Amino acid sequence: MTTTLIIGLLIPLLGTILGSAFVFFMKDEMSPRLQKSLLGFASGVMVAASVWSLLIPAMEMTSIDNMDNEAKVWAVFPAAIGFLLGMGFLLLIDELTPHLHIGTDKPEGMRSHLSKTAMLALAVTIHNLPEGMAVGVVFAGAESGISNISLASAVAVSLGIAIQNIPEGAIISMPMRAAGNSRWKSFLIGSLSGAVEPVGAVAVMLLASLLMPVLPYMLAFAAGAMFYVVVEELIPEASNGQHSNLSTIGFAIGFVLMMVLDVVMG
Question: Which CA distances in Å does 242 have to 41, 183, 235, 246, 247?
C-alpha cells in the first residue's frame, strides 16, 4: 500500500483520538448547545459523504450517457439494492447488539449484563463500522482505476469522516467522564472506539479484487449503513429537547463543508 493510502486509512482514527482528547481540556460535562451543534455537524458530513462520494459514483459506474430511459432504470438498481442492504445490515446489528443510544441511559438490543461503559463502546463501534467500510471501498475504487473515484476524492472522504469523528469522539468521552470514569479511561475508550474504522477499511481493501465486480453495490451499501446511523442515532438525539435549531445549523455547515471537499478534491 502506498503512503497516501496508509495515511488515508488512518486519518479517521486520528479524528476520533483528537475528539476524545477534549476530555482533558473541558472541566464540566459538555453543554447541550455544543452537543446539539456537534451532532448536527456530524450528521451533515455523513449525509454529504454518502451522496457525493458513494451513491453518485455508484450510479455513474453503471450508467452510460446515451442510455434510453428503460436502461437507466436498470442502471440505478445496484445503487438502490446496495443502499437498502446497508440499511438492513445496520438494522440487524442494532437489534442484536446490546448498546446505549448516544445521550441516553436506555439500553437497546438483546438483553445483556454488560456495563453502561461497554454498551456505549459497542454503540460507537456500530457507528464507526460503516464509516470504515466507506473509506475502504472508496480507496479500493480509486486504486482499481476502473471506477469514477479519484485518489483525491477518496482522501476527501477520509478527511470528511475524520472531521465528523472529532465531535463524535468528544460526544463519547465527555459523558463517560461525567459518569465517573477517569479522564484517561474516558480518553482511551473513546479513542479505541475508532479503531474499528481502519480495521474495516483494511478488510475491504484486502478483499478488493473480489469486490470489484460488485463495487457499485458496495459503495451504496456503505452509504446505506451511514444513513442508518444518521437517521437512527444522530438526528433523533440532535432534535430532541431544546436547542434543536443549533443542530440544524450544524447539519448545514457539515453538509456544505463535505460537499465542497468532495467537489474541490474530486
Answer: 17, 28, 13, 9, 10
Q: Kindly state the cell numbers that stand for 170.
A: 468528544
77 CA to centre of own chain = 23
pTM of the model: 0.80
Q: What is the pLDDT of residue 47?
A: 93
**What is the rounded distance in angstroms from the CA atom of residue 112 to the CA atom of residue 193?**
19
Q: What pLDDT shows up at residue 153?
A: 80
Residues in the chain where the model's pLDDT stays below 50 = 104-107, 110-113
Q: For the chain, what is the HEC assignment?
A: CCHHHHHHHHHHHHHHHHHHHHHHCCCCCCCHHHHHHHHHHHHHHHHHHHHHHHHHHHHHHCCCCCCCHHHHHHHCHHHHHHHHHHHHHHHHHHHHCCEECCCCCCEECCCCCCCHHHHHHHHHHHHHHHHHHHHHHHHHHHHHCCCCCCHHHHHHHHHHHHHHHHHHHHHHHHHHHHCCCCHHHHHHHHHHCCCHHHHHHHHHHHCHHHHHHHHHHHHHHHHHHHHHHHHHHHHHHHHCCCCHHHHHHHHHHHHHHHHHHHHHHC
Are the C-beta atoms of residues 144 and 188 closer than 8 Å to each other?
Answer: no
Does residue 82 contact residue 219 with C-beta atoms inside 8 Å?
Answer: yes
Of 174, 166, 168, 170, whose CA–CA distance to 29 is shortest? 174
pLDDT at 34: 83
pLDDT score for 111: 46
How far apart (Å, rounded) are the C-alpha atoms in residues 214 and 186?
39
pLDDT score recorded for residue 39: 85
How does pLDDT run across 6-32, given as a tens digit for each residue? 888 889 999 999 989 988 887 666 778
